[in-house]
Design brief:
- The protein is built from 5 helices and 11 strands; from the N terminus they run ββββββαααββββααβ.
- The chain is α+β, with helices and mostly antiparallel strands.
- It starts with a strand and ends with a strand.
Length: 192
């Protein structure tokens, strides 16, 4: 699993992923793979952790137009209910993908969603929020603790502080997980 973090409020959204891709044995395949795609002039995104091939298949085959996240959710439901995807998941129990997607909707308000290939369900999340996907639950809990601790040390928190904190959290996870590295990729979306 990889690590993806998203910090979002009503004024901005910051997405960060690491760059490591490993095979099922834990062998490193590459250290510089960006695990998100941005859309519509960088005003929306889809990020994933988990099985690279399956994640890329979803990103390559999903329909996403005009920052309509309701339409994206429906497109995802159709895609994951297809025979090809169902067979991929049932024939390969180790295939697993988590998605986070969101950004500015057509009304210029932020929305954020997650999807998990094990639950096969899209969840809409409230704003503001901090969401992490990837790695195991124990590390995710630790990441939330580090996040809170880092922000509590800062006075007058600004958007740049969230980005710095995301990098600190990524590095914390990378020190504890063989599946995460310190090469990061980031997208910042600001509401105008």
């Amino acid at each position: 699993m990889s690590f993806v973090s998203v910090v979002i409020d009503k004024f901005f959204c910051s997405v960060m992923t690491d760059g490591r891709v490993c095979n099922l044995n834990g062998d490193v395949l590459t250290e510089d793979f960006k695990k998100f795609r941005s859309y519509h002039n960088d005003s929306s995104f889809i990020a994933f952790s988990g099985t690279q091939g399956f994640g890329e298949y979803i990103l390559d085959n999903i329909e996403f137009n005009e920052n309509r996240f309701d339409q994206l959710s429906e497109s995802l439901k159709v895609l994951i209910s297809s025979q090809e995807v169902r067979e991929q998941i049932s024939n390969n129990p180790t295939v697993s993908v988590n998605l986070i997607f969101g950004g500015l909707n057509s009304s210029k308000k932020f929305e954020i969603y997650t999807w998990d290939s094990k639950k096969m369900k899209v969840d809409k999340h409230s704003i503001p929020n901090v969401l992490f996907i990837g790695v195991d639950d124990v590390l995710l809990e630790s990441a939330y603790s580090v996040y809170k601790q880092e922000l509590n040390q800062r006075k007058h928190v600004q958007a740049s502080d969230y980005a710095i904190t995301q990098e600190i959290i990524n590095n914390f996870i990378a020190d504890k997980s063989q599946y995460v590295n310190k090469n990061t990729y980031q997208l910042i979306i600001k509401r105008s």
